[in-house]
Amino acid sequence: MSVLKPEITFVPMPMIKIEKRTRYDIIFLGQEDISALKSPATLSFIESTSRYIVKFISSILYSQDNLEHQQKKKTELLFLKIKNFFCYLRQFASITGSELVYTTFLVQKLIESENQDFCEDKNIITITDKNMGTVLICAVILAMKMIQDVVEYKNCWFAKAFGMNLDLLNLSEIAFFNQLNFSIALERKQFIRLYSQIIQTSES
Predict the structure, then answer these.
(1) pLDDT band at residue 57, thresholds of 50, 70 and 90?
(2) Per UniProt, what is one GO molecular function of this protein (predicted)?
(3) pTM of the prediction?
(4) What are the CA-CA distances from residue 112 to residues 33, 129, 139 (Å)?
(5) Among the residues of the chain, which ranges form H helices?
(6) φ, ψ (nearest 5 deg) of residue 40
């Protein structure tokens, strides 16, 4: 299966232990939604999530492309790579619907922080085609740590699964976390709103 090849381009950061993790409790959703979010993500939800992520990532990666057909081709290729990446995690790491929503939130927040820091002329993590795989892996790792009581798939599993150096993966995770100012909590209402937006992507 073809997946995104993760390439490390983050600036190494000092190792910082995450002392506090918050667990997200799903409420104010229908029983069917709750069951779906707690279970391994369905293929249709993976496709919707991938489409949603591609919508805001492609505007960053391919905004300089002048030819519309070139942009569409690159966007569709990116969608297939992200979809295959999540399908791989569904098969081998049982990634849940909740973890996909949280991953989407983290990637979106990283892009927003990148835009803000760029305007303020700060040192930033620049998302590119080459490091997009690393960005997704770090987002998934943090999402699982935020949601799961006991994290089953640790960084060493991801390093082995995607052929990455464990030390560099750890540094990348910290760089990602630092870029978000160590604030990655997702409010309940925001979670439900994002989940609804992802679902609507499949209907559009």
Answers:
(1) confident
(2) protein kinase binding
(3) 0.81
(4) 28, 17, 14
(5) 31-38, 43-61, 68-93, 97-119, 132-147, 155-161, 166-179, 188-203
(6) -50, 135
Please give the Cα distance from 55 to 187 (Å, whole number).
22
Domain count, the chain: 1
Q: How confident is the model at residue 26 (pLDDT cuts 50, 70, 90)?
A: very low
Domain annotation covers residue 15: no
Instruction: Indicate which CATH number applies to the domain containing 43.
Output: 1.10.472.10
Q: Is the dihedral of CA 14, 166, 40, 152 positive or negative?
A: negative
Note down the domain range covering 167: 38-199
User: What is the rounded CA–CA span in Å between residue 109 and residue 129?
Assistant: 18
Strand-pairing partners, residue 96, are: 40
Residue 14 lies in a domain: no
Residue 4, pLDDT above cutoff 80: no
Between vectors from CA 124 to CA 122 and to CA 129, what angle results, nearest 5°? 150
CA-based end-to-end distance of the chain: 28
Portion of the chain with pLDDT greater than 70, in percent: 76
Q: Is residue 152 part of a domain?
A: yes
